[in-house]
Amino acid sequence: MHAGRGTCAWRWLLAVLLLLPPVFFMLPIPIDETRYLAVAWNMHLGGQWLVPWLDGAPYSDKPPLLFWLIDLTWALTGVHAWAARLLELLLALATLPLLALLGRRLGASAEAVRCARWLWLGSVALAGFAGGVMFDALLVVCTLVAWLGALALLRGQGPAGVAVLGLGLGLAVLAKGPVGLLVGGLPALLAPWWQPPLRTPWRRYYLAVAVALAAAAVLVLAWALPAARAGGEAYANAIFLRQTVGRMAGSFAHARGWWWYLPVAPLLLLPWTLALGRGGVARAALSPLDRFALAASVPAFLAFCLISGKQPHYLLPLLPGPLLAAGVRLADGRWRVVGWRVGLVLLAFPVGFAVVLRHPLGPVGLAYACVAAMAALGLGFLLRGRRDTPVEAAALGMIAAIGLAKLAFMQALGPGYDVRPAAQRIARAQAAGVPLLHAGQQHGLYTFAGRLTRAIPSAHGQAQVATWAGAHPDGWVISSYPRYRYAAAPLYAQPMLGRRLAIWRAGDIADEAARIAEAKNGTAGDEDDKP
Known about the structure:
Distance between the termini: 98 Å
Strand order of the largest sheet: 6-5-7-9-8
Helix content: 55-70%
Shape: globular
Low-confidence stretches: 524-531
Number of helices: 23
Number of domains: 3
Radius of gyration: 26 Å
Number of strands: 9
Strand content: 5-15%
Mean pLDDT: 89
């Protein structure tokens, strides 16, 4: 039995209120969030929505749908990082009614749907990444839409099913590339295994799926073909080949072994991977919903393991199905939420700050208060012992602990991630006409924080930097890479990502390079004078 409708509404409101503060206090995290905001800012600044740009070149790593949505949001709110985070939070929350509709279409009870939504909302996957400026919440929305389209086809709703499936798959590709077809389309292809035919013969069903795929292709090509012409040959090759074959064969970033997701997936499903215990009801045979959950997660998970590039949040679209099946088991009594296990998971947060960060949490104050609050939450659940805990209470505790962890993180490490002081100095120098050079790839690190209006050129290697510095003695050289370190005192320096970000006067670097070259020539001359 669950709480009344009014009490349940207040719990949902409380969950949203707990998820909301990080939207406003979290800084964009380098280098991914700062890069994506830089691309959106360049699109906003130039009014060019067809081809995303970064550092003066077309940006081919991601399709444009998220950047379009961020710019539409900025048209309403003004250009702010919190507006992009708020958009991401709304996308994450939009998955909840879609998950509920999917559960009802698959035959789940109202109680099972309620449990599944709390399991999804209270997981590390959703509560941890909600509000993060990335593409995965949007991909989950598109994936759920595609799954609903496949179910509509199975129920004989031909035109509507084709339209919804095609829209979901097309938007999934525009959200994150061809991986959208993988996560959104596999359950549709495997339908004979998880769903006995209802009103549509299988031959007609697969013909409708093919039509939906064609519609998705038309939607994607409506952007990709003109973008390829506008972006040039290199951009065209990147969006049509490099983002598919290239990422599977060898990732450009985040390349990891095939086994890497095996320990990551259970962590994303915390606290439920540890907090769920067996109930008093015997096991039941696999239902069509259970089979759907397997079809929506296992094949794509195996494919993800084989793809070179891996990040934890890439798995988000694979998790709603298993959590929907877990909600059914909670509702019918086969599983239960054990309070002391939830407590152990929540206690891992304050312990993690002590063990993983390995340094004090800044000055005594808010960071320590957050850690103490996390510990109190964990102890509260731990004291429940073996008693069952309502799933919404466990989810709210997890959301609160994750929010506190984010706040403590920003208090403890935020200054090391905040590029705004450097970016604002760079913006003032750019406005004053000071020549600028970044030593090493900068990934748009300062573009959004400084609202830069022009790209900063990059140089790679000490020789290139020295040549540029000699030609622009009044310019600035910027870098955070350890291989670019100079004896001259920097004009500005700050910690950043465990390294030092510094700005040097180019003339000082040119003088230092000349002295080094002169010393080398002198040494060579001494060697030549030896008998």
